[in-house]
Amino acid sequence: MTDTHFWLSIAVMAVGTALLRFLPFIIFNGNRKTPPLVEKLGRTLPYAVMAMLVVYCLKDVNFAGVSGFLPQFIACVITGVLYIWKRNTLLSILVGTLSYMALVQLVF
To answer: The pTM is what?
Structure first.
């Protein structure tokens, strides 16, 4: 890859990324109402993505031994309870991840 090709690739990626970031603001500016489908997706997709992440994280849980599923179960409970209590997604995911890592490294 030559230097020209390298810099041209970076420029194309930067323009594409900027266009994808700015396009919704250009299309749905203050003069137009957001379509109901887009509003519905904005309300439902975060929950769907979190559900997919939970399924992906728990797909390889081994129920043969206690150390195979208990750390994941405890971390999921901590994450869920903390989210219900504080309503802060970032905090609950961070504490859940840290608790899982501590359980795996120090307890199980």
So the answer is: 0.60
Secondary structure tally for the chain: helices H, strands E:
4, 0
17 in a structural domain: no
* pLDDT above 80 (res 31): no
Q: What is the number of domains present in the chain?
A: 1
Residue-range definition of the domain harbouring residue 84: 33-107
Query: Do 76 and 96 meet the contact criterion of CB atoms below 8 Å apart?
Result: yes
More confident residue, 67 or 71: 71
**Hey, what are 57's tokens?**
């994280």
Domain assignment present for residue 64? The answer is: yes
